[in-house]
Amino acid sequence: MLKLNYSGFLLEAGTDEAGRGCLSGPVVAAAVILPENFSHPFLNDSKQLSLKNRNLLKPFIEKHALAFAVSFVWQQEVDKINVLQASITGMHRAIEALKITPEFIIVDGNKFKNYKKIPHETIVKGDSKYLSIAAASVLAKTYRDEYMAKIHQEFPMYNWAKNKGYPTKEHRNAIREFGATDYHRKTFKLLPEQLKLEL
Length: 199
Description:
Blueprint: E1 12-18, E2 27-33, H1 51-64, E3 67-73, H2 75-81, H3 83-97, E4 104-108, E5 120-123, H4 131-152, H5 160-163, H6 169-178
Parallel strand pairs: 1-4, 4-5
Antiparallel strand pairs: 1-2, 2-3
Helix pairs in contact: 1-4, 2-3
């Protein structure tokens, strides 16, 4: 059973991101403030949910949250600042875009930087412990998946509609055959053989 609150503050925002380990596309972050009476029978870490349940949860969260926001950190910026900084930057931007300023922030994972003067706590596997982080994980994942399905139309050979930019064998084989696109993260090891020297 996921908990509703960590800090005791009424306006507690949960934040999470999706797409850190991908070879292409943006890192997408979300922040969510839930009301004190919020519940949903199958809200959980987005990775534990079926596509159908994530898509059912997205409008439910958006309708019932006190505030929510989603931000995209594009692949060019990921290359420039590195993926960890992109994750933190994305979460900061999502919190900034909330229509209500939170009194406390709970963050999935163990890395974060102070946001303004709002107290925060990092929680490892927070998306399977707290409802607001789980809700943020669902929004980050569904918005990112929708975007990857959209750019799949442009480059169907990479099958981003299915692999979402993650380093599957199929995705890597397509990079080997067709090369990298502007959607690929150039600082990532796109192919295992990139680090091998031909001697």
